[in-house]
Design a protein that fits this description.
Layout (H helix, E strand, L loop, with lengths): L9 E6 L4 E2 L5 E2 L9 E7 L3 E3 L2 E3 L8 E4 L5 E5 L2 E7 L3 E5 L2
Antiparallel strand pairs: 1-4, 1-9, 2-3, 4-7, 5-6, 7-10, 8-9
Amino acid sequence: MKTLKPYLDKVVIKMVETEETTQSGIVLPGNAKEKPQMAEVVAVGPGGLVDGKEVTMFVEVGDKVIINKYAGTEVKLDKEEYTIVKQSDILAKVEF
């Protein structure tokens, strides 16, 4: 099986499709609305010196995060779709 190993301050995420229910009770599947902003962290780069600044990674594999709406580069690997973003494109960690 192939794996993605991000470099420096990059994070590999997999978008999470969520259903949404309207006020009138209609369930909208994930593909019927805007691009999702919630994702699960799949792989995390080591951090290090990026553009002359030391970057410490704060996310971990398995974290659920909210990302900047138009952030990242979409890639396909073994029929799975992933997005590679900079850690700075992650806006928040979702805790349940």
